[in-house]
Every structure is written in C-alpha cells, then in structure tokens.
Design a protein that fits this description.
heterodimer, A: 317 residues, mainly alpha, ABC transporter involved in vitamin B12 uptake, BtuC, 73% helix, globular, B: 252 residues, alpha/beta, Rossmann fold, 2 domains, six-stranded mixed beta sheet, four-stranded antiparallel beta sheet, 10 helices
C-alpha cells in the first residue's frame, strides 16, 4: 500500500464529500464565490468532513494501539467493551449530571470507558485459554453485558430514545458548533506517534520489555488511557462507529508487519479514507436521504471482519 | 560480577528456589543443569529481575539488583527466554534494532545503527535482514533474537533453553556462537540447558540444581562425574571420553 495513493484518495474523496448533499453545490458556483454556497460549506460540509477525518483517523489509531498492546489482532474498542463502557458513561452523565456541559459528559464517559477497558484487561490476564478468537469473544460478551445495563437504566428512566440518538454513529447532525470536541483527539493521536516504539516493545510482552528496561505497566496504562479518551470523545460527538478500529489496522499490518512506527501513518490515512468512502456511499445510496455511518460501516466492516476471521491462520503459531 | 546470596522463591508454599548462593564467573560460560522443576529457570529469571525474589541478595556489578534502575540494568544484563518468541511480525533488522532500546529509547543514532549492523553480520543474518520473523526457520529466528541481545551489548547474557526446538545442526551453530561471544567479545554467558552433552562440550562451569537447591557447582570436569550426575538426575549415567569431551551415554 503506497502512502501516495492513500493521500490522493483522501483528497479526491474529500472534494466529493464537500460537493454532495441534499443541497447541491457545484465547483463552478464555488469558484464564482457564491456567498450562499460558501456559507453552506462553512457551517455544514467542512465540519462534517473534518469530523469524518478525525474520527476515522483516531479510531483506527487507537485500534492499532490496542491490538499491539494486547498482542491480539481482534481486539479493538468495539470488541473489548470500550465503546459500550463509554456508552454506559454517557447514560450515567445524562442521568446524574444532566446539566453538565459537553466536557463534563466526556469526563464521565472517559472514566467509565477507562474502567471498562481495565476490567477487560484484567479478564485477559486471568484467561488461561489464549486462543486469538476467544479473547475478542470474551470482549464482545463483556460489552454486551455493559450495554444491556445501559439499556436497562435508559429504559427505566425513559432515556432510550435520546440514548440511541447519542450512541448511533451519524455524521448528518454534525454542524458548526457541535463537533469541535473532536479536536481533543488530535493531540492524543500525536502522542501515540511519540510513544510508538514503546508500544511496539510493550507489545512483545512484559518479560521482553523488562529485559529492555521498559516500564511495561506504565506504557500499557498510557496506551489504554489514549484509547479510552479517544473512544469517549468520538462516541460522544459522532456516536459509535463499529469495526473501524478493528479492520483498518488489520488491513495495514497484513502488508506492513507489526512495527507500530511504520504503521501509524498508513493506518491514519486508510482510516480517514475508509470512513469517508462509507459516508459518501451512505449519502448517495438513497439520495437525497442518507443512511447513517454506523450502519454503512457496520455492514461493510462486519463483512471485512468475517473475511479476516477466515484468514486468521496467518496469525497462528 | 554476579553474586547470588541466599536467594529463595516460593509459589503457593512450595519453595521452588531454596536458599541458593552462587557466583557467576566473568568471561566464561556457566550452565545451569538439573531435572525438571529444579528451579533453574526461576533462578535465572530472578537474576535478570524478570521475577522478584522472596529472600536473599543478588548483586550485579557491586549493586543490589533492586537498587538498579531498570533501564541502566538493561545495558548490563540481558535475558532471552523461549517464551519471548512471541508471534510478532517484525523484520529481522527491526527486531535487532530494539536491542538498542536501552540506549536510544527507539530513536536510533548512527552509533546504534553500527551496533545493529555488526550484530546482524556477526550472526550471519545479512541475506535475510529485511525478512519478517515469521518467514524464518526456527534456527534463523533464534539467531535473530541472539543478534538482538548482541546489539544490546551487555556484559552478561542469560539464555533460558536456547536450544529448545532446534535440530542438531542449528543447536551446534548456536552453541558455537555463544562460545565465540565469550572467547572473542569477552561476554559472560549463563545458560539453562537440558542437553547434558551440550553443557559438557561448551561450558566452563556447571551449576547442578535439584529441588531448588544447588547439588554441586564447579568446573565442567568436576561436575561431569557419574557420582555427581547420579545425585542430580537419580539415574546411572556412564560417561565416555570421546574426542577430548566427556559424553554421557544414558540412552539405554
């Protein structure tokens, strides 16, 4: 996979994304500096594009970090209960801290997704049977339990509808003033570049890390911190976009191997391209209406996930 | 100098290593031998701070192991365990480069690259340095991990069963390399090894363990003795002198 191809794809898709929508825009009108069209771009299309790119990039990167740290290709925020825990946190914040601003909500969601991820890691430590497929199944079950608790409380306090609206991945509601929190992910992604080599060493196991003088627990905790915070931010602003953190890093590592430092840029670019392509598809398929991103990515993503499962022999000893 | 004094470790009430004291000779190969469950690997893991000890003292270079900064100790002593061979898709060169991690934290300098290239050349891995580890044979993979340890450039090199799963040819190759590390580069090598004849042919000193205690330690010549081996392994082991080496003939 050439980086240049990905960059070209990203630019082309970005332009397409800016031009399509219920209200038609055209390049010629934009070049005439039609103020109405530029206004549309400014308050709706640009925010949408930026949030798609940030969400795609950051969810893919945190998936990559998770797979590296757990040494399992099938672990991601979707398959480790991280997203479901963030959802639980959002429910708690709506219930108990209804007046809290968006930052407050993120803080609560973050605490819960971090907690959920740590519980998953504890389970991982305890599990003796380390089959590569068994671990994500445990994660999915754990996530299922958490989200059923979320549903239970949401049902009891009549929050089901608003919870579903929150949690379902959807870019159509993104507008100026509603997505800026996503920028929190940007420094976190930058931080993952800084720690790339340490994550790779940690991914080779605790004994291996100790031999090289790396503080294993600290590095794993930093990684999980980044994962939980990015997931909370994305779930809260865009909603949950399943499978990206799973399939994008896998597609990259199949070709490039597991040296995190070499994979970050590819993963970031492919993540953005993938989400952008799914979003455009969702906007065109029943034009002028649209299919929410959670659904498009879910369908395409689970297809690719199945394919990865079929070829999992590659990862076995 | 590595000094082990009165070191113990117990798991669930059972003493796996029981009050062991031993000095590791500088610039020599020392092999830990003994039956399964003798505590060889546990002792080695404690010396390399992979697991904590319950009692006793381990002094490396004049400083107690607990007082060392982990990162500084990584420049002094390295350990290679069989379980380190996890399934990660790195190229040989990337793996060897991680041996420089204690010095560079991942940002390789020119000097680091020099060590990496030398280690690759030393282990004759140049033709396959851009291959992924999972494309290599068992022997090549083991050489790649040893190259990483060479790049780590520590005075002490500890290897836990380095011949595990290797065929005869590759086993001999690895043992010869370890001998060269000692003779040419002046390293101190400590091995946990199951094949008594490899221990006999390549070690300078042997430490024989049983039930967490040292049965006897000494030069290879002293330990390769039917009476000593009987005590360690609970079986009669005749020893023949073949080509200047003491060989145990215990198969029938």
């Amino acid at each position: 996979m050439k980086k240049t191809y990905l960059i070209i794809a990203l630019i082309v898709l970005s332009v397409v994304s800016l031009l399509i929508g219920a209200k038609t825009t055209s390049l010629t009108a934009l070049l005439r500096f039609d103020p109405e069209q530029w206004e549309l771009l400014r308050i709706s299309r640009f925010p949408r594009l930026i949030s798609i790119i940030i969400a795609g990039v950051s969810m893919s990167i945190v998936g990559l970090i998770m797979q590296q740290l757990t040494r399992n290709k099938f672990v991601s925020p979707t398959t480790a209960g991280t997203m479901d825990s963030a959802g639980f946190g959002i429910m708690v914040s709506m219930l108990l801290f209804a007046s809290a601003g968006p930052l407050g909500k993120i803080a609560v969601a973050f605490v819960f997704s971090l907690l959920g991820t740590f519980i998953f890691m504890r389970i991982l430590d305890k599990v003796k049977y380390k089959d590569s497929i068994f671990i994500p199944l445990v994660g999915l079950m754990f996530g299922g339990i958490v989200s059923s608790a979320t549903t239970f409380f949401a049902y009891k306090y009549d929050l089901i509808q608003s919870m579903n609206a929150w949690l379902f991945g959807d870019f159509s509601m993104i507008m100026q003033g509603r997505y800026e929190l996503l920028y929190i992910s940007v420094p976190l992604v930058a931080l993952s570049y800084f720690y790339a080599n340490k994550f790779t060493v940690a991914g080779m196991g605790e004994e291996f890390s100790v031999n090289l003088g790396l503080n294993y627990k600290q590095i794993v905790n930093i990684g999980l911190f980044i994962v939980a915070l990015v997931t909370s931010v994305v779930v809260l602003t865009v909603g949950s976009i399943p499978f990206i953190g799973l399939i994008v890093p896998n597609l990259v590592t199949i070709f490039q191997g597991d040296n995190l430092k070499n994979n970050l840029s590819h993963t970031a670019l492919l993540g953005a391209v993938f989400v952008l392509a799914c979003d455009i598809l969702g906007r065109l398929i029943i034009y002028p209406y649209e299919v929410p991103i959670g659904l498009t990515v879910g369908v395409i993503g689970s297809g690719i996930f199945l394919y990865l499962l079929m070829r999992r022999k590659t990862y076995e000893h | 100098m590595v000094k082990v004094r009165g070191v113990s470790k117990q798991y669930g009430g059972k003493k796996v290593v029981d009050n062991v004291s031993v000095d590791i000779a500088e610039g020599k190969i020392t092999s830990f031998i003994g039956p399964n469950g003798a505590g060889k690997s546990t002792l080695m893991s404690m010396i390399s701070r992979l697991i904590t000890k319950d009692a006793g003292e381990i002094v490396i270079g004049g400083t107690e192991i607990g007082s060392w900064k982990s990162n500084e100790l990584a420049k002094k002593i390295s350990i290679l365990k069989q379980s380190n061979h996890i399934n990660i898709r790195l190229t040989v060169k990337d793996l060897v480069s991680f041996g420089r991690f204690p010095y560079s934290q991942g940002k390789l300098t020119k000097e680091d690259m020099k060590y990496v290239d030398e280690a690759i050349a030393y282990m004759e891995l140049e033709p396959m340095k851009d291959k992924f580890l999972d494309e290599l044979s068992g022997g090549q993979k083991q050489r790649a991990f040893i190259a990483m340890v060479i790049a780590q450039n520590t005075e002490y090199v500890l290897l836990d069963e380095p011949l595990n799963n290797l065929d005869m040819k590759h086993s001999v190759q690895i043992m010869k390399v370890l001998r060269r590390l000692v003779d040419e580069l002046g390293k101190t090598v400590v091995l946990v090894i199951h094949d008594i004849n490899f221990a006999s042919c390549y070690s300078d000193y042997i430490v024989a363990l049983k039930d967490g205690k040292i049965v006897k330690e000494g030069t290879t010549d002293e330990i390769m003795d039917p009476a000593v081996l009987k005590e360690v392994y609970d079986m009669d082991i005749p020893i023949e002198n073949i080509g200047g080496n003491k060989i145990c003939v215990y198969f029938t």
